[in-house]
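INFO batch 0412 | record 1 of 1 | parsing
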Amino acid sequence: MSIIIFIIILAVLVVSHEFGHYIAAKKSGIKVTEFGFGYPPRICKLFTKGETEFTLNWLPFGGFVKIFGEDADDENTNGPERDRSFVHKPARIKAMVLVAGVFFNFILAWLLISIGFMSGLPTSTGAEPAGYTLNNTALVITSVLPKSPADIAKLKAGDKIISLAEGKDLLNNPNTDTLKSFITSHSEKEINILYTRAGVSESATVTPKANLLSGTPGIGIGMDMIGTLKLPVHIAVWEGLKLTWDLTKHTAGSLWKLVHDAVVGHADLSGIAGPVGIVGIVGDAYHFGFIYLLSFTALISINLAIINLLPFPALDGGRLLFLIIEKIKGSRINPKIANAINTIGFAILIIFMLIVTYHDIIKLI
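INFO prediction complete | emitting tokens
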């Protein structure tokens, strides 16, 4: 089920991205010959709309749009339809077509988050808009430190803590402060934690250990008071836009740090998930509920948009960089050189994806 949901999410994300390129190209008078669902080899042609073939392909991990003249050759440079070629359009039109896919990914994320607010989105206390309150507020685990007492007890992010007990001492409906106090006062003792996961009550036994740096007893979790925020449509749309912007800034900052660390040779791939890792995350989100799955899809859409904006060959950002270079030098980059650079860039991306997938599999093992 996780694999099927992952394929559906990926299809929605990629199709929305490619639809952005498609609609921008068509509105700009550029010929689009094919809109592919999945990557070749082709299974069949679904239908034809105007001059564009909509096709279904065997590899379900993406999609593509064939824009006439995006990769310049003699046919689209000097042929009879040169005026409908991407390569002969003004720089502003080219730029619009290139960024349209990214723009549609941001729009999709905004739409999904707004729907989440309309339906009831998990939100931290204090983050709700003025005049609105959270429902069903509870202490939720937001992260678990590897090899910590909580990790050994198989606690996971998303678990709602209901109570803690040690002997005759009992703490019901804890918050962040009361939980810390209970853990501190019961250091090195077995504590029974009652929690709910995906609506099902479970229990675990943990023994707090002193932190090596601070000396304070802990079980190795991050936590927050989280409730459900449900908003009317007009407020949900506005708050959805604000949250989309905040997530975009945070994601861009994290990606910049990763690239910086990679350049200086200190990149940590442990926090990066490829297709195999994302399947596992999708499974967790699915079990926690539809809204969690919706939020996760929005976050992936933002990630996809930002990554595509990177000035790297084969990505939209790389093509934008070529466009800027051409504008500065006043002439086109040699098509053979541009195509070769994009091919090399694509090969590097595939190698990187294989490395990340290898790390995903190692973590599973």
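INFO post-check: The mean pLDDT is 86.
INFO record closed
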